[in-house]
Amino acid sequence: MLRTHTCGELSLGHVNQDVVLCGWVQRVRDKGGMIWLDLRDRYGITQLLFEEGKTPANVLETARSLGREFVISAKGAVIERLAKNDKIATGDIEIRVAELTILNPAKLPPFLIEDETDGGDDIRMKYRYLDLRRNVVRKNLQLRHQVARYTRAYLDNLNFIEVETPVLIKSTPEGARDFVVPSRMNPGEFYALPQSPQTFKQLLMVAGFDRYYQIVKCFRDEDLRADRQPEFTQIDCEMSFVTQEDVLNTFEGMIRELFSKVKGIDLPEVPRVTYADAMRLYGSDKPDTRFEMQFVELKGDDRDLTSGKGFGVFDDAGLVVGINASGCAGYTRKQVDELTDWIKRPQIGAKGLVYVRYNADGSIKSSVDKFYSEEELKKWVEAFDAKPGDLLLILSGQGDKTRKQLNELRLEIGSRLGLRNPDEYRALWVIDFPLLEFGEEENRWFAMHHPFTSPKPEDVDLLDKNLGQVRANAYDMVINGVEVGGGSVRIFEKELQRKMFEILGFSAEEAQEQFGFLMNAFEFGAPPHAGIAFGFDRLCSIFGGADSIRDFIAFPKNNSGRDVMIDSPSAISDAQLKELAIKVAETAQ
Amino acid sequence: MLRTHTCGELSLGHVNQDVVLCGWVQRVRDKGGMIWLDLRDRYGITQLLFEEGKTPANVLETARSLGREFVISAKGAVIERLAKNDKIATGDIEIRVAELTILNPAKLPPFLIEDETDGGDDIRMKYRYLDLRRNVVRKNLQLRHQVARYTRAYLDNLNFIEVETPVLIKSTPEGARDFVVPSRMNPGEFYALPQSPQTFKQLLMVAGFDRYYQIVKCFRDEDLRADRQPEFTQIDCEMSFVTQEDVLNTFEGMIRELFSKVKGIDLPEVPRVTYADAMRLYGSDKPDTRFEMQFVELKGDDRDLTSGKGFGVFDDAGLVVGINASGCAGYTRKQVDELTDWIKRPQIGAKGLVYVRYNADGSIKSSVDKFYSEEELKKWVEAFDAKPGDLLLILSGQGDKTRKQLNELRLEIGSRLGLRNPDEYRALWVIDFPLLEFGEEENRWFAMHHPFTSPKPEDVDLLDKNLGQVRANAYDMVINGVEVGGGSVRIFEKELQRKMFEILGFSAEEAQEQFGFLMNAFEFGAPPHAGIAFGFDRLCSIFGGADSIRDFIAFPKNNSGRDVMIDSPSAISDAQLKELAIKVAETAQ
User: Fold this and answer.
1) What is the ipTM of this complex?
2) Which domain holds residue A333?
């Protein structure tokens, strides 16, 4: 090795030892004939000392020629430091340098290699290898490695086998857009990159593998957002001879183990809520349950505390629903108006906001005092189980739309009240998803999860009666309002799978052509099976307390799907195109 | 869970317990009112017992309706078995079945799901999910999982970080053919799938990650052979601030650890041989060192024991070289003739074979007695250090070609003499590879390893004088004659890298366009670094004692790059082509 130690391991126990360290020049202070140099590597920072009169002249000269990010090798004796530095692990010692070698000089980096950098997003993406030098970024990837390690350890221990499934597979019409790969050996034909190893993991169950997992790259050619990447990583799992209950328990165990090992947090048991309840109580299938603030309906299926008092907005609404912003009765008129403007923005699109102030003195003041008596408003306050000092915020309109708007308002109020602490974690299982959802535009039914998801046995009859009411044995895990994983019990009988494709508008021929291999496999003894997949990038970002998954990917792509560091994608040669038997369309030339 | 136990865990300790097992029907014997059923899952086989008079009639009836590979659930009591079966772990017990459920019936499989199957390659590939049910195949993949686990454990323990590098990267002209992926968001442009994460792992070193690894899919669009797949898996590694010696020691340690953990074998220290010596002594840069049988030159650089005696073939040859087939003096004339025919086949192409029999009685008989006296042949025998009973097999001709032919002969003789025992393992480092090799056809120099490999410091001067003589700090690990891994110390200085591209025929612009990001990175403080990659599929096949890597890949492709199970690649829709701004060339339609 070119070094005897790393920059993170020397302490008082090493004093008087001769050592060789290698690393990058983080900082140099040259003052009064003394030079202090912070030498950095992945493991830490160690201070090098040079002193006029004591350090050889040529070494001093070399030291004075160093710039930031030079790569050097320094040999010298470990000595006790006079001014200790508590902030770093090696703060008790420094190295009196006797020999110094420049292994590679460095141009001045285009931004500061510090935790707080002056580089913008674009420049840091272009010089990603420099951005990765920053502790904060490197630590994200070290965290990612730890999450993967503990995930594997947990699953290995439960007899799961990691099996690699192919990356060059077949394009299928269902789901998101595929990336495709022209085949040179089969001209005119294409592979597709997998959106998930779904069918392969099911085939592994048919093959009797019993418990499978894989931490695996998947690909979706979708328009990108901040939290989406064309290639992403999944923790992909499948089990045989299990019920939904077994899958929930197994993977709740995994998530709790990860919280314990990675964060040192003892995550409580993960509560379960049905999709229907999640929508009713939070207006979202991924509610943030770090805080309660559940929806209360003033007018809905169960009751009507608002109609017939002359307030047309509520009279015409299918749903009148609100939240209790507890302790906010003191909000000024300005604050409430500002909230009203916020919720009327086009992104949310509410028509207006009704408030009821339950003042600390017990009096009630609302924006609809004109229509409702204090007596009537008291009933509202009771419905909300509100206490003096609370503020009720109420929306009305068509059911689904209003719930979605109120979900936004709930999250906003939660944030304003500091109820969404990034260091606090609440996980939740959302279960009993609808099997199907109707695409108005396409005028057909779509699988809400995917076409391999099993209806709940008690709902199978509804497949012939009311498709919208069929519930699936499907489940999502939500942490702090973010969907981190989801899965389902699978169909394992050919006839039901055939019927499912029929419902989704496949002709018998199309179904056979696209998924015949799976339906055929079901005829040779397929076991009952179920599975789940976690978004690994997202999970890491949750553990790391960051919003963007990009911070947890070594070499991410930008919103146009470009890697600006290597400048990809790019044109390829005519010879390559010819060999692959494809042409670039004129429109793109 | 649908079961209380697996089919591999019940023993006498469970007698009298009520259990539920799930699995596949392996075999049914129905005789004299008794039915014995072997129930199989991944974990083993358990015998189920049904008995007329004791077993409920409906259960008996169901049992009699079962066929091979039906998936069933059976509930009953564990009882001690009268006739124990030593061959299976559960051989002391059986289950007296009280309840029996058919979870899924099965059609008769197209081939036997047994260790010895009657299915040919094609049918087993098409029904790969059935082939994977066979113990022998499934165990290969379980072994693969174990190799991955121990690899990760070893590297994690040495502070290597697993970092995922991108799959959608940039096409580069050097090396094998790329698979490409048209970009919808960047019409007319393409990603490429990585042949290896080479440049990314080097950038991770520039980023200060110090020690990186990844078990990662790589892609090469090459014409396929039995041991090649378009997608394959690598153990990819890189280290900073190290010399070649450190890499060899680190990964020799890994391989020895794997042998110890996976095979229970204490692999001896791995010897090293230079490329030059490997070619001289074995005629191959991946010699099988399970047996000696090194080449002996009768005419070469150091001596000439053959010229001037009237044997024109040897007189005209640049090299006369042979091996000692120890103990084979008893080979009949027919056997030697057959060997001669074997080596004259077009695949090998030798002109002929000269033999020298050193008989047990000390007499010498050769096929060139006409030209060489016993005295002269004695000298040959001495050169080979042969003993009575040995047989010398000698080839002659142009140096490189003759060595390659003799390598084939050496391996063949080794096989015939039983010296290539698949249960015996000999690893070897081959070092000091040439940096460059000349492509006669293209009339230019190619990097023997890749363009990022560093010349040996003492040979750098030769870059301006004699390119063919420059040795690289490159190394391969060879086990039993198979190259399982290779790597090199990398260039980390921009100027040397630039020069290397120049030697390889890149213009300055081309080098900058293709690899500018890496050369630029070298200007910002790149550390000295080196790395290695192991062929993971190949390594697993070595541990599994099989010749083909296909047996260690869950869903391999055939020699035309097709997955015959899912029927991929396939045509894609016109809509997809249009969205991707590409067309299929007329020639392929």
Assistant:
1) 0.95
2) 293-420
